[in-house]
Known about the structure:
This protein is an alpha+beta fold. It has 13 helices and 16 strands.
Amino acid sequence: AARLRVREALGSREAADKVKVQGWVRSVRSQKEVLFLHINDGSSLESLQVVADPSLECRDLTFGSAVEVQGKLVKSPHKMQDVELQAEAIHVVGPCDTLSFPFKIKERHPLEYVRQFPHLRCRSNALGALLRIRSEATAAIHSFFQDNGYVHIHTPIITSNDCEGAGELFQIGTSQEAKESAEKKHFFNVPTFLTVSGQLHLEAMAGAFTRVFTFGPTFRAENSQSRRHLAEFYMVEAELSFTESLQDIMQVMEHLFKTATSTVFSKCPRDVELFHKYVAPAQKGRLEQMLKNKFVIISYNEAVEILKQASQTFNFKPEWGCDLQTEHEKYLVKHCGDVPVFVINYPYDLKPFYMRDNEDGPQHTVAAVDLLVPGIGELCGGSLREERLPFLESRLQRLGLTDAYQWYLDLRKFGSVPHGGFGMGFERYLQYILGVDNIKDVIPFPRFPHSCLL
Ligand code: 4AD
Ligand code: MG
C-alpha cells in the first residue's frame, strides 16, 4: 500500500486503491452500520474521514490513539469533504488512556488550559495550526533575507558581552571541574552568559558581508509576567553596512514584515483562518488593510507631546526623557489609527551605548527606532550604530567598558562604515499577525519566571 499523509489524501483528485494513512484519532463515532473516524497527522488542520465496517472497531480504537488505516480513497458523498478513506484494515499502533488523557473528545479546550501540557497541546487544532504557521513564517523570513542579498550568520548563544547593557543576563554556571579548583573560576576563564542579542556579532560580520542576518534564540532574565515577555524567545536581526539614514532601516523592517506576512497568509490560509475566525475575529480585515498602507513615522518628541495631551489616562505620567511604557505605546498606536508606528530619535540617556549620537542640542537624542504595533506595543527595536571611533570610545569610557569592548572598537579602526540594523521579536510578530493574546501560546515550549515545564 502507498503511504499518504493526510494532507495529500485530502488534496487528491482521484480515487486510489491500497493506500495507507497514519495518524492520531480525533474522533470516533460508531453507528449501527458504520464506524466513522477522523484522523490527523499534523500535515493539515483538517482531519481525514475514515469510514469502516463496525466489525473493525476494537477496544483500543479511541480518541487520542495512534492508528494506521489501510483502504481505498474514494470521493466522499458528504458535503464537508471531498474524499474519504474506506477502511479495509485498522491497526492501533499506540493506544491512549482516555481517562487520564488531559483532552476530551469534542470539547474545545481554552488556550490557558492546554498551556499546562506543552508536550501534548501540539495535538490540538489551535496549537497545531500555530506551529505550522510558525514553521512557514520562519521559512518566509529566511527567504526574504536570502532573496535580498543577506548572508545568514549563526551568532553565538554563549557570549561574554551584555549587548543591551540592561543587566538581564542569564549567567552560565561554572563547570564541575572548575568548582573543585580554587583558581579556575570559570569554564571560559571569563564570566559568560546566554546571549540577549546577536547584534554585536552581526556588526562584525556586516563589516565583511555588507548585509547579514541572524534568527535564533535569545534570553532575558526579565522578571516579567506580562503577556509579551518570555525568558527565551526568538529574534530576527539584520545589520546593514553603508547605511546613513534610519529611513533605510525602517524600509527593511517594513518590507520584511509585509513580505513575510503575505507569504504566511497565502501559504497556510486555513491555519491562519482558524485564528482570524475564532481567536481574533477583528484582526483579519485590519491586517489586510495594514499590508497595503505605509507605516506611520513619528519622532520621540512628537510621541511625548501626544502622550502629554492625554496625561490623565496613564498610570505612568509621560515626560521627556522617560522610556515609553506599554500603556504609552498602545495609546500611540491607537492615536495614529490603529496601525504600525515607527517612533524615532529617542533620548541619548535611555538607550544602549552602541546607538549613533544625533548631536542635537539640549534634548539630546540618538538615531534609534522602535516599531510599535496594535495590541502589543514594541515589535522591533533598531538604530544606526555609532561608527565614529572618538564618539564610541568616550561613551564606553564613561561606562567603564573600554577593556571589554576592544574588539568592538577595532571595528571602528579598520574600515569603519556607517551602518545600522534592527531586531524583531518573532513571538510578538506571530502574536500580532494572528491576534494571539498571550505570548506563551505562540512558542512550543514557553519559558518564563517560575516556569520551565519539561
Ligand atoms: O529592543 P531589543 O532589546 O533590541 C535588541 O536586542 C537589539 N540589539 C536588536 C538589534 O538591533 N539587532 O529587542 C528586540 C525585540 C523587541 O522589540 C521585542 O519585540 C523582542 O525583541 N523582545 C522580546 N520578546 C519576547 N520576550 C522578551 N522578554 C523580549 N525582549 C525583547
Ligand atoms: Mg527595545
